Amino acid sequence: MSIESAINSLRTGYIMTDKSGKIQYMNNKGAGLLQVDKNKIITKSIFSLIPAMNKNILSDKDHFFYDVYYSNRKFFFNYSPLYSEKKNELIGGSFLFNEEQYYEVFLKELDAYKNLNSDLKAIFDISYDVIYVSDENGTTLRVSSACKKLWGKAKEELIGKNVYELEKSGIYKPSVTRLVLERKETVSLIQETQTGRRLMVVGTPIKDENGEITRVVNASRDITAVDRLQTELNETKQLMEGYKKELEYLRSKASKNNDIVYQSIEMERVISLAQKVANVDSTVLILGETGVGKEVIANYIHCSSERSDKPFITINCGAIPKDLLESELFGYEKGAFTGAAKQKRGLLELANNGTLFLDEIGEMPLTLQIKLLRFLQEQKFTRIGGIEQINVNIRIITATNRELFEEVKKGTFREDLYYRLNVIPIKIPPLRDRKDDILSLIHHFLHVFNEKYARSKTFSNGVIEILQQYDWPGNVRELQNIIERIVVLAENDVIDKADLDAFLIPVGHRHSKDVVVNNIIPLKKCIKATEDQLLKLAKQKYKTATKIAEVLEVNQSTISRKLKRLNG
Questions:
Q1: For 400-451, how does the pLDDT look when each residue is reduced to its tens digit (9 = 90+)?
Q2: What are the phi and psi torsion angles at 167 (to 5°)?
Q3: Angle between the N-to-C axes of helices 436-452 and 461-469, in degrees from 0 to 180, rounded to the nearest 10
Q4: What is each CA distance from 138 to 141, 149, 159, 192, 304, in whole angstroms?
Q5: From the CA atom positions of the chain, what is the Rg in Å?
């Protein structure tokens, strides 16, 4: 509620004059009591309006209460002189009045007015916001006591000073009152003070009936702490954003690793190398036996690269008839051959901006190897039966379980293509050479297939020991297939050794004397390699040299000597 609204709500008349008696303000009640239009009597002399009024009253510096007759009615007037706050000189008079019959009410209203004035003053002084009142010339009339904290000046030092002068001296800048007077409208801005504070200030013009500004009221709030907190919040947000990105990266990395279950140092080296080559486009050749997870590593490289949101296309060169492999890779135009009823896009086009994984690359026929080499050199090709050159941007990853260099020697694989593909070779060791991964893989596949088939199978310790000792000629694929077979077909929830024989026949015969030879090597080298493997297997199963000697049916001294040589 504004002071004007409060005064107009009084049930008593109110007149304010300057020191000569010219009326500066009259409230609605006063205009009603005197039966005048208050807008027409502004600047009119109170003595001409009320002839019975004592003309010497304004020279009196005391407060007093007296009666006056107006239009044959008796009024009681309470007079109060108005002084300037700085010079303590008389600048006008204030009159509260009412008719005689309302005298009792008048006194009560006077008390209410005094109380309201006290309340407004208290609110003015204790307000969290600093209230700053200036006249139409920018002279400071009133300011709440909080100004000392914000501007470093007591209110006594500001009252009577012009805002233009205060702004020029650097007490505050810019002056909101100045801007309100210039623009003749409400102004809101951030103000800086000589004490180093930042204030949010809203300046509001108070206008008379003619639209002229008579007062400017500013409300200022200290936002220094808010600014500091905002800065800290922004810094924290930036820090949190950094943490968020790092967390997303780690989650992404973890997600990409979810399909790769390993514990061994050997596989750690493979993953580390895959990470290094992920964000470059060098051609990668993945080597390893059937079932070791070559496609899994290829997919990991793709998902870790900047192409991760683009296609990952895979094709097994040994699973497609040789006469169809070319059309699968390069596509064909309509009518290129019998049966080509419409155009077909090849896998090279489908993999554009992504990765093409060529598994079992050693099975690719020589004629197609030439065309693939040309594509690798130029990154463009033509469809079968077409003449248009098609440009693509893809990364090539290949894989094989063959010794490609031996195939080069035989003439079944082009030497120039071999060197083109073998830029970064990644060799995945067979499962028998990374026994540390077997237990993790067992638990992983057991969990996967228990969930898939709604089972609750578990392995006894004896079964897990057998599975860990098995050589896994089919590698991870064989392990996965056997675990799935056990989960689906086993009658009991706990799988023991007796149950295992029905699913893993080779394990039951793991002491067989049969030896599988895959390559031709010197006999002495073969004997030594076989002996070393046998000693490693026995050492893993039996804790003492005595027991190993007993099982292998040789002297303990022989075993001790060979183990010492094996350990280096």
A1: 998 888 889 989 999 999 999 999 999 999 999 998 899 889 999 999 999 9
A2: -65, -45
A3: 120
A4: 9, 22, 11, 19, 68
A5: 49
First to last CA, the chain: 96
Cβ-based burial of 505 (10 A; exposed 0-12, middle 13-18, buried ≥19): exposed
User: Which of 408, 149, 151, 382 is closest to 140 using CA atoms?
Assistant: 151
CA distances (Å), origin 539, targets 229, 433, 534: 66, 15, 9
- Judge residue 408's burial from the number of C-beta atoms within 10 Å of its C-beta, 0-12 exposed, 13-18 middle, 19 or more buried: middle
Centre a 10 Å sphere on the Cβ of residue 493 and count the other Cβ atoms it contains: 10
CA–CA gap between residue 62 and residue 296 (Å, rounded): 102
Cα gap 113→408, rounded to integer Å: 110
Beta bridge partners, 14, equal 96
User: Which pLDDT does position 427 carry in this prediction?
Assistant: 95
Q: What percent of the chain has pLDDT over 70?
A: 84
Tell me how far the alpha carbon of residue 377 is from its chain's centroid: 42
Give the CA angle between residues 338, 339, 345 to the nearest 5°. Answer: 110
Specify whether the CB–CB gap between 191 and 173 falls below 8 A.
Answer: yes
**Distance (Å, whole) CA 185 – CA 194:** 26
d(Cα 335, Cα 330) in Å, to the nearest integer? Answer: 15
DSSP 122-169: HHHHH-SSEEEEEETT-BEEEE-TTHHHHHS--HHHHTT-BHHHHHHT
pLDDT digits (tens, 9 = 90+) for 287-310: 999 899 999 999 999 999 999 899
Rounded Cα gap, residues 24 and 82, in angstroms: 12
**Cis-peptide into 365, omega within 30 deg:** no
The 3-state secondary structure of 23-67, one letter per residue: EEEECHHHHHHHCCCHHHHCCCEHHHHCCCCCCCHHHCCCCEEEE
Read off φ and ψ for residue 184, nearest 5 degrees: 60, 40
Q: How much of the chain is helix, strand and coil, in % rounded to 5?
A: 45, 20, 35
Helix, strand, or coil (residue 454): coil
What residue has token string 């290829």? Answer: 298
Yes or no: say if 394 and 356 are a contact pair by the CB < 8 Å rule. yes
Q: pTM for the whole thing?
A: 0.47
Tell me the pLDDT tens digit for each residue of 169-201.
888 888 888 999 988 899 888 888 888 888 888
Give the phi and the psi of residue 17 in degrees, each rounded to 5.
Answer: -125, 165
Poorest-pLDDT segment among 26-40, 434-448, 469-483, 536-550: 536-550
Cα separation, 36 vs 423, whole angstroms:
104
Task: Return the structure tokens found at 88.
Answer: 């303590």
